[in-house]
Amino acid sequence: MGKRAVVLLSGGLDSATMLAIANKEGFRCHALSFEYGQRHNIEIESAKKVAKAIGVASHVISTIDLSAWGGSALTDDIEVPKDGDMQGIPVTYVPARNTIFLSHALGFAEAIDARDIFIGVNAIDYSGYPDCRGEFIEAFQTMANLATKAGVEGDSFTIHAPLIELSKVEIIQRGLELGVDYAMTQSCYDPLRDGKPCGKCDACRLRDAAFAEIN
Q: Full-prediction pTM beyond 0.90?
């Protein structure tokens, strides 16, 4: 059946590709998604579709209310920037989100005797988030092996970030090779009332530009 792995699954383009990669590598994948007070909560429905279509051993949807303190356009009453008018680290950055998500994934992994965790961060075509960098992933893996019973006993964890050095075009091409149906994914930060993508936010622009490049 392969080694168990916890896969962080948002329902977006990147995480769908990453799940397909983990499956291809022979892992028995346990998907973990979060309802964290995000305005684009429709991504949870996409995550369910992706998990079902690509295949997982289990799919846990955990609730963490990051909107309790806000601080981001995704969790607070702050307008999502459109048409590329973001400079520096954008307001769509959610404070410590990937640290929080990976911490939950670490607890889940140790509980089910998994030692591999997959996260779909990307340091090439991304919005400047500090928790999407290789340095962060390396630091978290070090922390994971210092902070857990398994880690200190020598049964170490590995944090996999297979997309981190790929462009958005390369990610899509890899997913298509693995049969990923991107129609079921959701990337938009500020979807319309009917669930359709806005087409103007940073996530939409990166996605649309990549698909346009590969026709």
A: yes
